[in-house]
Amino acid sequence: MRNFEVAFIFNDIADMLEIKGENFFKIRAYRKAARTIENLPVEIEEMAKEGRLQEIEGIGKALSDKIYEILETGTCHYYENLKKEIPPGLVEMLKIPGLGAKKIKVIHDTLGISSIEELEKAARTKKLRTVPGIGTKTELSILKGVEALKNRAGRVLLATALLVADQVISSLSSMKEVTDAEVVGSLRRKKEMVGDIDIIAATAAPETVLNDFSKIPHISEITERGATTVSAIHDMGAKIDLILVTPQEFYPALRFFTGSVDHNTELQSLAQTMGYDLDETKILNKNSNEIFYPESEIQIYEKLGLPYIIPELREGRGEIKAARCGKLPEVVELEDIKGDLHIHSNFSDGISSIKEIAKKAKSLGYEYIAITDHSKSLKIAGGIDEEKLKEQIAAIKEINKKSDEVYILTGIEVDILSDGTLDFSDDVLSKLDIVIASIHSGFKQDTDTITNRIITACQNPHVDIIAHPTGRILGRRDPYAADMDKILEAAAATNTVLEINSSPDRLDLNDLMAQKAKEMGIKMVIDTDAHDKEALEDIKYGVWTARRGWLEEKDIANTMPLDELLKFFKVKK
DNA sequence: GCCGTTTTCGGCCCGACTGTTTTCAGTCG
């Protein structure tokens, strides 16, 4: 957890330096350090104790000093001074699409605006256009950006919420008065973004637990407190709701507060027809007035004649009917995944070497991986040209020969260029085991243009997979205007596999789109798009998304053993 | 701010797109 805390501060510093107009490379040093620390497989505190901070790539004297200070005091002077200098509203404004540090500074300097509310007002009253470099179009786009930001206010990514929830639950579990604690709500159902982090805890001493709750690290503010409930704000900005129940009420409450509302309503209707009444504390037999306190969620579903329904499926999308007919999907499990087919190495913009990635993959129990770096046109990501690709293929063959680690497939994430052509010739693509095609430019093209680009890629006999098919970035960028129905049809017609990208801010395809693809007979892969060996662990987010989309092992190509997978990808060619 | 068989300063991702200008700056990936 402390890694996250240090990374958070470094990112905040980078934001503020950006507004100050500091040296680009200095800012990048803070961001890079933040990313490295966030993904560090060990506790930064441990490394600090051993005096090994400067062994971390990208951390020198200045940053390591700040890390020591943060670990000791929770903050550092440099950070606190910056916070005094830069109004927090300006940092917030960085989240507005189309508005960057330079414009924020000039707006602040010209009109004295230092909050999003003031910015919105200035845009509405047409004062923003008086700022040098801002015209009517920019004014309008800023207004749109503010709207978009408001719409997602307070929502956090699943990955962030889980991190916070784990920390709070482990603190709760360590209290001797707490017998059980579990995350509930949409977070337990593994929705891609959540508004609140809901937690229930079982205790016979609610008063004591509520008092101790406010002492949990990083709980910065208690916003509401009742006899058995408390709401708080976590340092990371997430809202936490804690509900206390008695130990015997724990499982009814777990079921009830996990939701969803639709699932609960349907379940209650079914219970009623069977003579039961379900609520958050018990199961009541209406005929005999007998009260039943289940000792697991399984017992609740059993009582209603149903098999257990996993939280990811509890969305009221027909799961109860399916459960009644014995037609619940046998959803894919993390252990079913036999390899990751979308990984970047240090040949392009990844941090880790192929060997390091292979070692990590082995530790995850994988049978194979594919190295799929960016292609030459994506300059910012250090896209590789034909020559470098040849070098990489040779390097991979060499590693495969010598090592008993996972089998490494050669591959590329080839850019679908703005004109719809691919960044490499068919001849080059034909020499690779796995070809992933994806879009990294021309995001704002109209529906026809961008749809046709992706369809053309599907039609290329060498393209195996379309990566992050909708292009959305959660909380930051909408999907491109592509017609997904047409793309699904093209994928189905050409046997092109679609990706469920596990990166926590993508999860693309999402659950519903993946379910639709499954119904059309399209195969999918769950990949991480990792740029760092540690990010291979992100695969769980993709698996959860697939489970929410009712996907089974047979729907996912990378659950196949290697020989079967290779045969499968040859069918199209 | 980091890094270095260029050892102590200078290099460290580039290019398209957009909107504001009138030749360019800011944003984004």
Sketch the major β-sheet.
7 strands, parallel
Q: Roughly what fraction of the amino acids lie in strands? A: 5-15%
Radius of gyration, taken over Cα atoms and rounded to an integer in Å: 26 Å
CATH class of the largest domain: Alpha Beta
Shape, per Cα inertia axes: globular
Quickly give the CATH architecture of the largest domain: Alpha-Beta Barrel
| The CATH homologous superfamily of the largest domain | Metal-dependent hydrolases
CATH topology heading of the largest domain: TIM Barrel
Look at the structure and give the mean pLDDT: 93
Number of strands: 17
What is the helical fraction, as a range of percent?
40-55%
Overall structural class, as computed from helix and strand content, comes to alpha/beta
Furnish the topology, listing elements before pairings.
Elements: H1 2-20, H2 24-39, H3 44-49, H4 61-73, H5 77-85, H6 88-93, H7 101-111, H8 116-124, H9 136-151, E1 156-157, H10 158-173, E2 178-184, H11 185-188, E3 193-194, E4 196-203, H12 206-213, E5 219-225, E6 229-234, E7 239-245, H13 250-258, H14 261-273, E8 276-278, E9 283-285, E10 290-292, H15 297-303, H16 319-324, E11 339-343, H17 354-363, E12 368-374, H18 386-402, E13 407-415, H19 426-429, E14 434-438, H20 447-459, E15 465-466, H21 484-494, E16 497-501, H22 511-519, E17 524-527, H23 539-548, H24 562-570
Parallel strand pairs: 4-7, 11-12, 12-13, 13-14, 14-15, 15-16, 16-17
Antiparallel strand pairs: 1-3, 2-4, 5-6, 6-7, 8-9, 9-10
The protein binds one DNA strand of 29 nucleotides through residues 23-30, 32-33, 57-63, 97-103, 132-135, 137-138, 141, 349, 377-382, 418, 440-444.
InterPro entries: DNA-dir_DNA_pol_X, DNA_pol_lamdba_lyase_dom_sf, DNA_Pol_thumb_sf, DNA_pol_X_beta-like, HHH_MUS81, Hlx-hairpin-Hlx_DNA-bd_motif, NT_sf, PHP_dom
Domain DNA-directed DNA polymerase X: 1-315
Cofactor: Mg(2+)
